[in-house]
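Observation: inputs received (chain + thymidine-5'-diphosphate).
Thought: call the complex predictor directly.
Action: predict_structure
Action Input:
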Amino acid sequence: MAAKVRSRFVCQNCGSSYAQWLGQCTQCKEWNTLVEEIVDRVEEKRGAPASVKSRNPKPIAISEIPAQDGPRIPLSDGELSRVLGGGLVPGSMVLLGGEPGIGKSTLLLQTALRNPHLKTLYVSGEESEHQVKMRAERLEATRPNGRTNEGNGCFVLTETNTQNIFKHIEALQPGLVVIDSVQTLHTAVLDASPGSVGQVRECTAELMRFAKTTGIPMVLIGHITKDGFIAGPKVLEHMVDCVLQFEGDRDHAYRLLRPLKNRFGSTNELGIYEMQGSGLAEVEDPSQVLLGRREERPSGVVVAATMEGMRPLLIEVQALVSSAVYGTPQRSSTGFDLRRLNMLLAVMEKRCGFRLGQKDVFLNLAGGFRVEEPAIDLAVVCAVLSSNADIAVPMDACFAGEVGLTGEIRPVTRTEQRIAEAAKLGFARIFVPKGTKGIAPVKGIQVVQVGQVNEVLGHLFG
Ligand code: TYD
Ligand code: MG
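Observation:
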């Protein structure tokens, strides 16, 4: 075991340092801001293996630096590859964050199992070898093609001490290391308990140096605290190369993999998975799955042409409007911002003359998705008005447009992509904001440009 190094407690708010931990910083009076940090940074005592020579960088003219994007390690999982920007970059460090139970371990274990060309060390501090094995069996047993010996490149290690983990990595020489999870790790150079800010940060720093010097890519799993931060300290996000967030509604099968930061690719990508009995299945054509096969759409159900990152996504918006039974009308919304719904209701009331003030309004997006994009507004308005009048919106129509406070329909991004997706799925009409420029005609679909909510109503309900 490495010798203890000197450490001190530093206030994360004002930077004052103390010899021992205190609940409150006596300088700035903030509570719970003291974090243990190492004072003397002796490289050898820390995680980096002695065999790794430190590089000695010299200034180099930018024109002399080779421009090529280094080689990437391809992964069998198309969604994960794409979200990473086209495969794993050697020596990179990826942080996968998400709420407990969302499927982080499942995603990475199945990646380890299904890429036999990539020797993977799966370090688990949360589950025993047996538990990991059981999960692997579940993932493999139920696969449609029933391939069995795919897990040959996957090694499991139940260890939480970073120095020991490095020894095993040096001996095994894997092509990928997965750490499940960063909150269980501890380094011998700090006394703090695993999961504390100081430990999580120091362990990540050690792993980062190890990844950079050996060229072995690492994926860290990090739990998200209630306020949405990965592992509490935001600082982790600055250290790693790539932060992926795994999200979704646990009661629904769909999961979204969103890059929050990516030094090697775009953060506009989005991966969509469906949680099945055999693990996470890639959803290649999400619109198709989300719209389902309907013979007819009842009143209050409208299709919105939205964008999730760079991908067009057609999604069903469902509204139910009914007379309020109790005094105060209820407004509830799933997957769409409630304040925005209230604003749209006010616009419909004031600009279009609909009496919605005494009505209960419920809104729901299919599949447990959350859409933040304003282009869904028009579909929300149409769904509410369709339910209110109890008249179904024609099956062949879909909508994209932001609705402003005067009932005007405002331009949205990437209209062409939305139109193309709608045409692909067999829609005959798409309503887009008036004044959208440069729309090339697409075969089979009529593009209707509308400037005001009232105009749309004229088209739909006559
Ligand atoms: P898990 O990967 O353990 O979540 P995390 O590591 O993010 O905490 O995933 C947990 C859920 O996924 C669990 O409730 C069971 C479910 N699951 C399936 O539905 N199918 C499967 O094949 C597997 C392995 C898990
Ligand atoms: Mg887990």
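Thought: report the result.
Final Answer: The two ends are 79 Å apart (CA to CA). The pocket of thymidine-5'-diphosphate (ligand 1) is lined by residues 98, 100-106, 135, 138-139, 275, 277-279 (CB under 6 Å).
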